[in-house]
Amino acid sequence: MSKEQRPWLSSYPPEVPDTIDPCPFASLADMFDYACEKYNDRTAFINMFGSLSFKQTAKEAEAFASFLQHEWQLKKGDKIAVMMPNLLQYPVAVFGALKAGLTVVNVNPLYTPRELQLQLQDSGVTAIVVIANFAFNLQKIVASTKIKHIIITNVGDGFGFVRGHLVNFVVRFIARMVPKFFLPGAVSFRQALKKGAQRPFMPVLLKPDDIAYLQYTGGTTGVAKGAMLSHGNILANISQALGMYGYIIKRGEEMVLTAIPLYHVFAHTINLMLFFAIGGTNLLITDPRNIKSFIAQLKRHHRELSVMTGVNTLFNALIVREVFKKFKFSRLRLVIGGGAAVQSGVEDRFFKETGIHILEGYGLTECSPLCCVNPPTAKTFNGSIGIPVPSTLARIVDEQGEPIWDLGRPGELEFKGPQVMQGYYHNPEGTANVMHGGYVRTGDIAVWLEHGYIKIIDRLKDMILVSGFNVFPSEIEDVVSRFDRVEECAVVGVPSDKTGEAIKLIAVKRDPTLTAEELKAFCRGYLTPYKIPRYIEFVDALPKSAVGKVLRRCLKNHE
């Protein structure tokens, strides 16, 4: 691709390179070891009542890896699921698993048994680390999976012996946040670390092409698929992010707010991997929906925060609170928005309160995920997703697959670079459908702006983005179709000030007495809360094409 076909290069600040070294380390485990040695005594993670230094993280991750090797006899390439929110145990489990050569499968702890079963069965994991609060869901479906080994962790396990036991007691018996479960043979997280520390860790030879993650995504078809992300893919994406932002990031000095769940690929690569690599401190927010607790943690650390990442809904939730205006973000100089489009009204209010612009970026799971960002030299909010990061090629193609370079002419956005996945796990057909001449099809319609900036104008598919999470109409429709009081249904996304998009269900009743609340109650038994339709409309019939396909575009335009 000629320089004329990389118009974004003219928008790079002088300090940003055109290309990067995609593999500065042989593996993420090597990167982890390097960072732990270089930033030994610096605090790596803070979460509620506890913290971990780089040295402590290294010690516990190695003990965890040793446990996996010696107690469970897990080998390079075996798969382990990690199902927990942002806790100190999370990085220990992930880095420990990577050091042992395992492939990590991130799992949303809020999944219903049905959703959990589908992912665990498809990935074929044989081991899992699960937060006790949601172990009851695992109990319901574990017999239908290949899981042989289970580690249970509690919220307070990372807070030290005395405080940890107190927190766990309150969570379990006072707040009653841990439903009863029965998982015979399960090991506690603390037991695993204790046993692992008694045995020597056996280093594993890892290469850039080895698969580090099966990161599940709906891709562009709505069917959950495991994107195979190699150690090299993630390392390249770290280098690309550093290529764009490295000249304003101070090694060993940053504190980043991590409210997006680390099981989400955006937070995993940027917050966890990138900032660990440069000696940053992650302020882990376990439940950002608990705004009272969230604000309390910000109150303790707002003067130390230098970097913030988030989704539009997170920024909006903060700026509408009066207490946020009292915080003095004296060190804050980099704010990155991802996961969903940042709304201009939210960005404007955030800028007025902090004096810092939200730099919107864009990525997808298949790209590890970062593809585009607005550079830190941006002086205004332009509503674009920015420009491609170093060593990334972008193109917009027409319906025939031919590149478009005219400004303002829409087409499908595609990306190519060292961060692109190795393919979908045991799904060659899905892989072939998403790849186009070495480029990943995003399923998004975009246009070129001046100087190589890219603007998303519509979605090629019908995916709905709720607070940065992908929701697919076909999944919800499939669940509702099981309800014998519904004749047929369709799902579309509608604009929402709170979540970016909200889910609207349009249904034809089989039972005339059916109410919207009864239909929502049915959905709650099968779907994660953010997938529950916010709006329900009953109609006499759904618009269909000549071949009987429901026309969602007509429903979206229906008032």
Automatic annotation (TrEMBL):
PROSITE patterns: AMP_BINDING (PS00455). Its main location: membrane. It is an enzyme of class 6 (ligase). Signal peptide: none annotated. It comes from the Bacteria. One of its GO terms (molecular function) is long-chain fatty acid-CoA ligase activity. Its EC number is 6.2.1.3. Keywords: Ligase, Membrane. Pfam families: AMP-binding, AMP-binding_C. Pathway: Lipid metabolism; fatty acid beta-oxidation. GO terms for cellular component: membrane. Residues 32-425 form the AMP-dependent synthetase/ligase domain. Residues 475-549 form the AMP-binding enzyme C-terminal domain. It is a peripheral membrane protein. Belongs to the ATP-dependent AMP-binding enzyme family. This is Long-chain-fatty-acid--CoA ligase.
